[in-house]
Amino acid sequence: MWEWITRWAFHIHLIMAISWIGGSVFMFVLGITLRDKKAQKEVYPHVGPIFGWFEVVALVLLLATGFIMGINYHLFEILLNPNGSEISDALLNKVVLVSILTIATVVHFVIAYKTNGRERTPVQQFLSRGSSMLIFFLNLFVMHYAIVLRNIL
Fold first, then answer.
1. What's the pTM value of the predicted model, to 2 decimals?
2. Burial group, residue 7, by CB count within 10 angstroms (0-12, 13-18, 19+)
3. Domain segments of the chain: what residues?
4. Helix 2-33 / helix 37-72 crossing angle, nearest 10 deg
5. Would you say residue 141 has pLDDT above 90?
6. pLDDT mean across residues, the chain
7. What is the pLDDT of residues 108-128, one digit of tens each?
């Protein structure tokens, strides 16, 4: 059973990463191009929850499959005993970025879920937009380190 799981973990991880980053890019472009407040109030209450729950599932699967690959490729040993090698540095950078990305996602999701269809306070608006921008840009750096790690492995 474990062999089957480890064989599919990379594929599931890749599909979820594509979905996660593609969805993030789509929502980023939507946020930039949809400037009309009325249109935003019509679109986001419908698209947001669907996208949000999909992203939660994708994130859980990304974290789970990343953990499985970490075990399979003995990456936790490298992470816990960094030696300054390219794989050690890339792995540490990716884990730090994924941790920040996960926190930003939780913040964004909680605010979006609580305020869907309602006006946000200035603080909620700042945290929601800020976390959304952070998620978008962190995705690009996480993807970079994922490519570096895949090239090494």
1. 0.88
2. exposed
3. 2-152
4. 160
5. yes
6. 91
7. 999 988 998 788 999 999 999
